[in-house]
Amino acid sequence: MDLAVAYDLALPPREVLRLQGYRRPSDTPTREVLAILEEALREARRLLAPRHAFRVFDVAAVSAEGIRLAGGETLRFAGAERRWGPFTQVGLGILTMGEALEQRVDALLEEREFPLAFMLDAAGWVAIEEGALALTNTICNVHIARELKATPRHSPGYAGWDIWDQQVLFRLLPAESIGVRINDYCVMIPGKSLSFGVGIGPAAKVEQVHKCQRCDLRDCAFRLAPLRAALHLTSETFLAREGTWDRLLGRS
Length: 252
Description:
Blueprint: H1 13-19, H2 31-47, E1 51-62, E2 67-69, E3 74-75, H3 80-84, E4 89-96, H4 100-110, H5 114-144, E5 149-150, H6 166-172, E6 181-182, E7 188-189, E8 193-201, H7 244-248
Antiparallel strand pairs: 1-2, 1-4, 2-3, 4-8, 5-8, 6-7
């Protein structure tokens, strides 16, 4: 399926800083840290090259243990129907931000430019999440026009889906055409890449519970919301307050 996705990656500064440990409103970075952040954001916008592969497959059968696709492949996604509701198709995708950013991070590490390297790496992780949101929103909109629903995305290795199904996705999708491969441990290369699936059908579940609220990885450093919490996080960080960015950089 050809999807025209507008990858307008904003790279919110407060999200990049959150991955660097600035998680509370009281965690205020110094002017020097903000200068490094600005440089990292400039480099990231220059280096990021989002690309995706996405295809839709008919479903032959669904059981408690997994999903059998019409072509014969099986996805070992336990509890898929509980999470996705009744679905008749599965959309599988791979998204990458390309190799250039990671190559630049490696070069900075070689030069011992550690603060900029780590900040640029964090910007890459923010970019992949933003890109995934843009891609899955496009998938939803395309299927809404066909009177179908698409569920929130889920990935191999998370909550019931066997990590080794990465191999199935890479057999079914043209990953090489977007420059992505996996190693023997199912780790994607480049690292700023992700794979996912969505359930598709007229009665599929579409409630948009935050992805972190569906995930049971308790010690994840990227967690944005508690597992199965009733409320979304709503607090704003210091960077969301008008004028704070310029004030900390001494521009006002």
